[in-house]
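Shipment paperwork, digital attachment
Item: protein structure file
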Amino acid sequence: MKDRGQHVDEHSDDTPISYRVVGFDELEGAAAAHYRRQRRRRLLLFVTLPGLVLGTATVATAYGTGLIGTPAVTCEPISQPAPARDSFEVTLLNSNDTDGLGSEIARELTLRDFNIASVGNADSSVYVKGAATIYYGSEGRDNALLLQKQIPGSKTWNDARPGDSVQLILGYGFDKLVSEPDPPLPAPSEIKVNVYNTTWQEGLASQAAGDLKERDFTIGKTGNDPQMSFLEDEVAIIRFGPEGQRSAKRLAQQISGVQLQKDDRTDATVSLVLGNKYKGLKSASSVPDVKPYVRPAETIQKPCTPAKK
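Attachment content:
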């Protein structure tokens, strides 16, 4: 009798070997448990092997194409000397709803030595959500990076414009310019002064203009006051517009008892209007001896370009 669970292998040399596979339902005890374990191993191997092969191929492909396994390429921004602030023109447009913001910022940037070519409102179709956008061409990238330092949160954009000029558009997110110490008052050689006489003393305007010229002031017009004022009890008045306020303060250092009077002129010239009590300039030793302000050298940070492998 054949043992249950074994294959039939009785045969003669000339009889073909035949097998009978024992069914699972015929197995009992330890044999059934062993059979179940074998089936689980085969099933796991059947499912896992193709996944491993596929996964290996996928990983190999990812390595080959640089998706994984490639060390991150990092580099630091490149610091280099910045161009001079007044070496390029800035067109300033305001897309913000705040009236007069463009003129205000243009004035502040001018005080910081930027060359503002024009100021206006952006077209109604232009919308800048952030603080500002600075447009530049291939020759103006460094200029844009320098101006960007003045406006926190501003962006630069290469629109392929010709030349080295840039366009600054203030956006709805604009808050203020970066804090920067006020530059000193302009030197006498940077100030243009008109000198007018309101008294009966002939030649007084020419005399005062000559004294100012000796102290390096640039003289504009001289003569009688075009406003035909009569300053009977005044020493002198300095008239100035918004652009000439700092120049007026410097000129005022030259004359005791002078008064400042703001008008609506649009340039930086100032007018010294002499009154009846004008007795001349202060002594040269009692006024500051200043030279034109030289702004310290600046740098810009140019974004780095990782080297290609």
